[in-house]
Amino acid sequence: MADPVFKSKITPYVFTSWILAAFGGLMFGYDIGISGGVTGMDDFLIKFFPRIYERKLHAAENNYCKYDDQLLQLFTSSLYLAALVSSFFASKACNVLGRKPTILMASTFFMAGAALSAAAQVGWMLILGRILFGVGVGFGNEAVPLFLTEIAPVHLRGAVNILFQLAVTVGIFIANLVNYGTSTMHPNGWRFSLGGAAVPAVVLFAGSLVITESPASLVERKREEEGKAALKKIRGVDEVDAEFEEILSACEIASKIKQPFKKLMKKQSLPPLVIAVSLQVFQQFTGINAIMFYAPVLFQTLGFKSDASLLSSVITGLVNVGSTFVAIFLVDKVGRRKLLLQACCQMLISQVAIGVILHLKLSETGSLDKGLAAVVVVMVCTFVMSFAWSWGPLGWLIPSETFPLETRTAGFAFAVSSNMLFTFVIAQMFLSMMCHMKAYIFFFFSAWIVVMGLFVIVLLPETKGIPIDSMVERVWKKHPVWKNCFDDDDSKEYEMA
Ligand code: BGC
C-alpha cells in the first residue's frame, strides 16, 4: 500500500501546542533530577531523617556503601509507586474526558505536590507531597506522549514525540542546577528545590488551556465536527479529508471495543503490549536512573568532593539534553531500530569499562586517581549520550505509536506503569545493590544490555513512517514472529471484538 500523503503545515499554533504539551516532560524530569540532590542536603536530612544524618557523620567511609538506607530510598521512590497506580486512572480519564483535561489534571496535582513539599514541616506532609507529585507524573506521562503522537504529522511523529523526552532531559538538567544553587542556602534550600517543581506545572496548566484536544480523542467521543475542526487547526490546512477518514475508521473499530483492558489480553494485542512493556523495563535496566538519581552520590563515591560531584552531574545533564537532539533529527530518517542497536553497543562498552576500572582500582576505602576518575566520567557521558538518542526517547515513542486506537490508552498505561515500577525498583535497590555487588553492578547492567539488543533484533519491527492507524496491517501482520498472533480466524475476531 502506498503511503497516504496527508497535508500539513507547521503553524505557530501547532508549534506552541507541541512545546506546551512537552512541559509535561519537564515536570517528570525535574523530579527525577531533584530528589538525588535533596536527599544529599544536610538540612533536609537533619529535619526529616536525623538518624541517617547521624550515621552519615559517624560512618566509616566506605566507597560502595555511603548512604545505603531503605527509608531514604523510599523517599525518592514513593513517587513512582503513586505514578504507577495513577496511570491506570489516567488511562480512563484520557478515554472518557480526553487528553487535554488529563494534562490539566496532571499539572494541578503537580502544583499541589510542589506546594505541600515546599511547606513540609513533618514527615507526612513530605510523603503526601511526593504522592501528589507521583499522581501528577502518572497523569502527565500517560497523556502527554499520547497527545504528542496523535497530533503529529506522520512524517514527523518521532521528532514531535521526542519533544517529551527532550523536556525530561531539560527538567533533569535544570533540577541539577537548582540543587547546586540551593545546597548552600541554609536551612531551607531544599524547600526551594522541591517547590521549584511548581514552575513547569504552572506553565503546563496554562498550556493545557490553550492547546486543542487531539482529533482522535474528539471523534472517539462522538464529537466529529469538533474533531475535524481540530484536525484543520493542528495541520494548518483545510484539506484534511483523507486523514480524517482514517481517524473515522479507526474510531469506528474502536467504538466496538467496550472493554479495552480485556481486549488487551487477547492474542492480537500481544505484539504492541509485549513491546511496550519490554522497552520500558529494558530502559530502566540500562541503569540510567542509577546514574540520574544518584549521580552526586556516585561521583562522591568515585572520590570527587561534594561540589565537584554536583558539577559532574551537571555535565552529564548537558550531555543528556544535547544528545536528545540527535534522536529528534535522526528518528524519522534512520528509523527506530538502528538507533536502539547502535546505542546497545555504545552503552555496553561504557558500562563494562566503568565496571572494570572500579573493580580493579577502587577499593572500599581508597579513591580513584585523577586520570582514572576522568575516564569514568567520560564513560558515564558516553553511556548517557547513547541512552539519550535511543532507549530514553524510544521507550516512550514506540509504545505510543504501536497500539490501535481501541487499546491505545489502556496499552500505554501498561507502558507508563512498567516504567514507574522499574524506576521504583532501581531507585529502591540501587544503593543497596552497589553496597553488596560493588563494581559488579555495572556488569549486571551490561548483561541486560545484551539481552535488550537481542530483543530488538528478533522482535522489534521498524515503525518509522507508518501511519499510526495502519500498524496492524502493515507492521504486525508482516512480521515473521508477530504475524502468528493474527491467523485468519483470529483476525476476524479482531475486527469484530
Ligand atoms: C526515563 C527516565 C530517565 C530519563 C533520563 C526517561 O526516558 O524514563 O527514567 O531518568 O529518561 O533522561
From TrEMBL:
Show the Gene3D superfamilies listed in the entry.
Answer: MFS general substrate transporter like domains
Identify one Gene Ontology CC term for this UniProt entry: membrane
Enumerate the spans annotated as Major facilitator superfamily (MFS) profile domain. Answer: 17-464
CDD domains per the UniProt record, alphabetical = MFS_STP
InterPro entries (alphabetical)? MFS_dom (IPR020846), MFS_STP/MST-like_plant (IPR044778), MFS_sugar_transport-like (IPR005828), MFS_trans_sf (IPR036259), STP/PLT_plant (IPR045262), Sugar/inositol_transpt (IPR003663), Sugar_transporter_CS (IPR005829)
Regarding the membrane, this protein is recorded as: Multi-pass membrane protein
Q: Give TM regions.
A: 12-30, 71-90, 102-121, 127-148, 160-178, 190-212, 273-297, 309-332, 339-360, 372-398, 410-433, 439-460
The record's GO molecular-function terms, alphabetically, read: monosaccharide transmembrane transporter activity; symporter activity
Q: Where does this chain mainly localize? A: membrane
Q: Does the keyword Transport apply?
A: yes
* Keywords noted in UniProt: Membrane, Sugar transport, Symport, Transmembrane, Transmembrane helix, Transport
**Localization per Swiss-Prot or TrEMBL:** Membrane
What NCBIfam families does its record include? SP
Q: Which family does it belong to?
A: Belongs to the major facilitator superfamily. Sugar transporter (TC 2.A.1.1) family. Belongs to the major facilitator superfamily. Phosphate:H(+) symporter (TC 2.A.1.9) family.
Q: What is this protein called?
A: Sugar transport protein 8-like
Organism encoding this protein = Coffea arabica (Arabian coffee)
